[in-house]
Amino acid sequence: MRRKLVVGNWKMHGSLAQNKALIASLIANLRDLKNADFAVCVPHPYLFQAQALLQGTNIAWGGQHVSRFEQGAYTGSVSARMLADFGCTYAIIGHSERRVFMHETNMTAATSFGAALKAGLTPIFCVGETLEEREAGVTEAVVESQLIAILNTLGAQVLSEAVQQRAVLAYEPVWAIGTGKTAAPEQAQAMHAFIRRKIAERDSGVAARVRILYGGSVKPSNASQLFAMPDIDGGLVGRCSLDPNDFKEICRAAC
Ligand code: PGA
Question: What number is the average pLDDT over the span 108-131?
């Protein structure tokens, strides 16, 4: 049985004062929830604050991106090792907003996935199709190519390294992110099952163990139905992770 995981993706929101209040509420709200794992992925400048406030609680923390380079003259970049330095457990990799606005590609996302593993982080690797791709009937082909990029870029041995570090996948249909439109539970389940099947073609042990989160307008009103699906192992939550009561309800649905 895979333990469920709920990760808040704060995106580019927050301030020292706002985070302090939000984290205090999250700690109080989630303290008694024991049957799932929880984390928040915060903007890089706030990692120190997240570490200071969340240490010793049942909420882990992480970054929203890591450079594909280890170190060097890459102005503005943040390495996986730097995230590890601030006690991060997780790093979101290849989020669709980074693919669209920062021109990340399957190859760069896959390389960042490898960099995160090398630094001892648990990558949360995002895949998902746009509305145009869904309407064109190429959803499975798009998601498969995003997954295969990891193997093509890093080689087949990446699967065993990934499972050792409990790597996580996130299926996030781009048309559902931040739009209030959620994939129907059955629609999401079908894609999660597809992703697990594709991994099982390479390694059935890895497929059985890997956690696959759903992301895209997860909210208190739909979390229970989504999390009840057999291949949905939790959620990657944007907007509702900024509201401590909404996030609490979503986390409770995972328990
Ligand atoms: P949303 O974002 O919950 O606001 O749709 C999800 C995500 O982008 O990870």
Answer: 96
The residue nearest atom 6 of ligand 1, judged by CA position, is 238
Give catalytic residues, as residue numbers: 95, 172
Between vectors from CA 177 to CA 112 and to CA 6, what angle results, nearest 5°? 70
Q: What pLDDT shows up at residue 180? A: 81
For ligand 1, say whether the CB of 217 is within 6 Å of any of its atoms.
yes
Percent of the chain with pLDDT over 70: 100
Averaged pLDDT for residues 25-41: 97
Is the CB of residue 218 below 6 angstroms from any atom belonging to ligand 1?
yes
- The secondary structure of residue 203, as a DSSP letter, is -
| 212 half-sphere exposure, CB direction, 13 A CA radius | 26
Dump strand ranges (E) for 36-130: 37-41, 59-63, 90-93, 122-127
Of 150, 225, 160, residue with least CA distance to 189: 225
Q: How far apart are CA 101 and CA 63, in angstroms?
A: 17
Closest CA to 185 of 207, 210, 214: 214
Tokens representing residue 159 in the block: 């699967």
Q: Which atom of ligand 1 is nearest to the CA of 92?
A: 9
Overall size of the chain counted in residues: 255
Q: Is the CB of 108 under 6 A from ligand 1?
A: no
CA-to-CA dists, residue 102 to 67, 93, 94, 148, 253, angstroms: 12, 12, 10, 21, 33
Taking only Cα atoms into account, the Rg of the chain, rounded to an integer number of angstroms, comes to 17
